[in-house]
Amino acid sequence: MIQSSAFFYEPSPLPQVDESQLEKIYESDGGHCILLKGHRNDRVVVYKALKEAYRDDPVYQRMLRREYEIGVSLKHPGVCEVMGWHTLPGYGDCIEMEWVDGCELGEWLKMHVGDKQLVFSVMLDICDAVSYIHRKQVIHKDIKPENILITRVGSHVKIIDFGLSDAGSILTGKDPAGTVNYAAPEVLAGGVADERSDIFSFGRILLQAGPAFSGVARKCSAEDPQKRFKTFEEVRKALVDKSTATVLRWVVLIALVVVVAGLWMYLNHKGSSSRLFLDAVEQVRQSSIPS
Predict the structure, then answer these.
(1) pTM above the 0.85 mark?
(2) Measuring CA to CA, how many Å separate 161 from each of 81, 222, 258?
């Protein structure tokens, strides 16, 4: 029996789906779900269903239903849209989601490693999306490059896969969960996940985004949760402050180079560089004395 929650939504009408057009696009080796690509009302959609071996298992049915209830409650441009809950002949209950024409973050970073400004923008968009998720009292618990899609047009962020997520008003999904190399130490040790657990995972991602993010990444991924940022708003501010400080340093450096080069050219043109330099300094000093 499915437990009710504040996230419960009535099933949407049965979609008119041509089974012959359904295309299996993903089936993990160790997971329990498959993804099918299809069309409904002239729109490309994705259906997430259980593999046949898990389809009649009430435990996995509850997990799929919980993922739907969490996902359908989230309405943000940086979160993959959950559109409905349906029963498809031959596949059973499934979640209908928007189709994201893009690629995983890890692949995207390899293609755009040289575009530092675009990478910076995407990192900020991830912060905004996860901040929204946390404001909805949801902890993702599996933030990793594979669960962040970037659209091919516009490089927009789409957070996906809330199968391991925890929401305050849902009773299931409280067990330790995550992916090794991205899950926070307290989560892997069986502790309670909170906002800082997702921040740790994001810190691991920042380390892959380039050396410019290393300082913020280290604080995000501190072993001790108390030494991390408390919210994604704080992470975002740290990224912006770091970027602003870097720009200012470059502006000062360029200005210094221009001044030194100009002075050298002036002295070299006039000759007697030491005497002229002293004369220039004296002129500046005299002009600063009130008349």
Answers:
(1) no
(2) 11, 25, 52
